[in-house]
Task: structure prediction
Amino acid sequence: MTIRSLIPCLTALLPIASSGTLVAYYPLDTDASDASGNGFDGSVVGGTVNFGQPGANGNTGSSAAFPDNGHIDVPFNAALNPSSYTVALWANASSTGGFASPITSRDDVGGGTSTHGYILYNDNGGNWNFWTGDGNPGWDTMSGGAVTPNAWTHLALTFDAETDTKSIFIDGALAASETAPNQYSPNGTVEFESLHIGAGQDDGLNFYFSGNIDDVSIWNTALDEAAILNIKDNGVASAVPEPTSLGLLALGCLGLVRRRRS
Result:
């Protein structure tokens, strides 16, 4: 039994030390299920997603290939759209441009008259972009640097609601950051759109991603650079504290069950 396989119980038992809680985790090894234990499972819609492809590295298992015609849909849940958050994943884009999106949780009200949520885009200029909606027309955009086609890149988006700071990290390093009021209004503020892995749509255009995606994780806090680098270097499981023994794990799980029954 590996620490990776114990993530659901560990997530339920132990808050992530100094880094919030893992809300959802999509390894994308064999399907679109949520390995955090929170039950936010996805499904493939609109085309094809091929699981079991070579992963980003030895810590991530397999990946999913998105051939520009399908994506993973995760039904809306407010827990997936917290006021402060981190979204982290590995992406290997087969091309640049087209506003292809590895992950999106967005809500365009009235065709863009009011925008909410976030988008990670491979934009027409060949750069990674972090867009957020603030409830007004248009999007607050941020460029994180050039996309390298056919190469794995670790990407992380953060927003800190306490400081009104949004940031994008590329391969574990801060690429851009901005602190300003009214940069982010969550998906679900007005309408309730699904989380999409491999597409940039809300309920309109698809902006399908072409390439591979691996190890998607969503956290309910803005992780710092050290925590993001740790996830990049050692995998999502490394961010979950490992018990000193399986006996401690079993004891903790038993206590959790008892608390839930009481």
